[in-house]
Specification:
Strand order of the largest sheet: 6-7-5-4-3-2-1-8
Largest sheet: 8 strands, mixed
Number of strands: 8
Helix content: 25-40%
Shape: globular
Radius of gyration: 15 Å
């Protein structure tokens, strides 16, 4: 029986797995995440995964492949959240799990707001945002929508406890534990 993906912290040491994950994503999925055509993932992921002060989470399947990545990147008193879920893992609640885990990190990190940049009409991210624990605000910035929430509205999420083992049986309705990064 397949277990739900386990979520761990990620970093520069996970570069090869992150590149492989990006290469398994369709061009539409990558466009939805980056809003432009991207060069080879190996050219930009080292900077992303090594960005100081950022939080990076990876969802690993049973075969030790990254199937989703989440990033929380500081931007003054705010933090940008970004998700990339592999096509074959979409519509299973994995983006919601990652966003909840990132929200818990945002609460603990002291940022006032968390935002994301999404394309108009992106139904997949709209589905993820419907599960947000607080109000999500939207602002059209000329072709890209900035969605944001106050971190205090996320405080309903209790900080995610660090546990070892499976993500639990109520997946995806509960926030998942974030496990220490594999070494």
């Amino acid at each position: 029986m397949n277990q739900p993906p386990r979520i761990t912290s990620a970093g520069p040491g996970d570069l090869d797995a992150a590149v492989a994950h990006h290469r398994r994503c369709s061009s539409q999925t990558l466009w939805s995440r980056y809003h432009r055509a991207m060069p080879d993932a190996r050219s930009y992921l080292p900077l992303l995964l090594g960005r100081p002060g950022s939080v990076h989470l990876a969802a690993w399947d049973d075969s030790a492949r990254i199937v989703a990545l989440g990033h929380l990147m500081p931007d003054r008193s705010t933090a940008e959240a970004a998700l990339l879920v592999e096509d074959s893992w979409q519509n299973r609640g994995l983006g919601t799990r990652l966003l909840r885990a990132l929200g818990s990190h945002a609460v603990g990190g002291g940022w006032k707001t968390v935002y994301g940049l999404v394309l108009p009409g992106d139904e997949r991210i709209d589905a993820v945002l419907r599960h947000a624990p607080g109000p999500v605000h939207r602002h059209d910035e000329g072709g890209v929508i900035r969605v944001w929430t106050r971190t205090r509205d996320l405080e309903a999420l209790h900080p995610v406890p660090v546990r070892r083992g499976s993500a639990g049986t109520n997946w995806p309705s509960e926030p998942s534990p974030v496990l220490p990064r594999k070494t």
